[in-house]
Request: fold
Amino acid sequence: MTQPEALPPAAAASPSADAWRDLLVATERPEPFTPSDGLFWDDPWIGEQLLAAHLDERTLAASRPAATRERTEAHLVAQGLAGPGVDVLDLGCGPGLLATGLARAGARVTGVDLNEHSLAYAEATAREQGLDVTYLRQDFRTIDAVSRYDLALQSYGELSTFDDATRDAILARVHAALRPGGALVFDVSTPECHPDEPPSWYRSQGGFWRAGAHLELWARLRYPGDVVCDRYVVIDAGGVATYRMWFHDYTPDTLTPVLERAGFRVEALWGGLDGGAPGDDPGWFAVVARRA
Ligand SMILES: C[S@@+](CC[C@H](N)C(=O)[O-])C[C@H]1O[C@@H](n2cnc3c(N)ncnc32)[C@H](O)[C@@H]1O
Reply:
C-alpha cells in the first residue's frame, strides 16, 4: 500500500487545528439569545445584500411583496390608523417600502433602522418623491421619544427576535413614544413559521455572507418556550463566524399578557398587517395594541 504523501510543513501547521477548534466552538449549542459573532444588519457587505433582498420581489427573505405592502397601507388607512396628519414611527423600516407608501397617503413618517444601505435608498426615494419622511440611523432599542407618535409600526416580525427582557424594554420605549390612545401595530411569527428542518450546507463563490468563496453550515435549534435559533456558521479564508437568528414565536394567547403587562390593550388580531383573517397564514399574525 502506498503511503499518503506527507503534507508540506505550512499546511500541517497549527492554522488547520485552530480552524477545527473554531468549528467545534461554532457548532456548540448556544445559550438562548447568544448574539452573533459579528455585525449583521449593519455589516457593510451583508447590509448591501439585505438591501438587494428587500428590493427583490422574488424573495421573501427581507420584505413582503409589493402587492402585500399596498394592501397593508390601504388597510392601515381604512382602519384610521394611518393617513393625513398621523405621526407614524416605523421601527426597522428597512429601505422604507412601507414608510414611503404611508407618507404618500399623507402620514408624517419617521423611519428607524440600522442598515445604512437601506436608509440611503429610503432617503433617496423620499427626496425623489418629495415625501415627508425622516429617517434615523439608530438602534430602535434606544428610541427615547415621549408622546410623539399616533402609530408605531413594526413590520415583518422584528419583535419575535428578542429575548423577553429586551422585548419588554422595547415595548416600554414604544409605549412612552406613543401619544395616549396611540397604537402599536406589528406582526409576529407563530411556531408554525419554524418547522423542524434537517441541517444543510452549501459552498459559494461569493454571495450573501461574503464577497469571496465561503461555506455555510445551517442548523435550526429548538428551545423551550417556542424559541428557535437559525444558526449559520460561515467559513472563509478569514476564519469561522457564527450568525444566530433567534425567534421567539408567539400565539395570541402567549402575546396578549406580554402586551397587557406593558400597558397595552389588544384591540384587534389580524391574519397579517394587510388585515387578512386570523389563520390565513398560520405562520404569522398581526396585532393592534392600543396604549391603554
Ligand atoms: C425583516 S426586515 C423588515 C424591514 C421592513 N420593516 C419591511 O417590512 O420591509 C428588519 C429590519 O429591521 C432592521 N433592524 C433590525 N434590528 C434593528 C434594531 N435593533 N434597530 C434598528 N433597526 C433594526 C433591519 O436593519 C431591517 O431593515
About this structure: The longest strand covers residues 178-189. DSSP finds eight helices and eleven strands in the chain. Residues 41, 54, 62-63, 92-94, 97-98, 112-115, 118, 139-141, 155-156, 158 surround S-adenosylmethionine (CB under 6 Å). Confidence is low (pLDDT under 50) at residues 1-12.
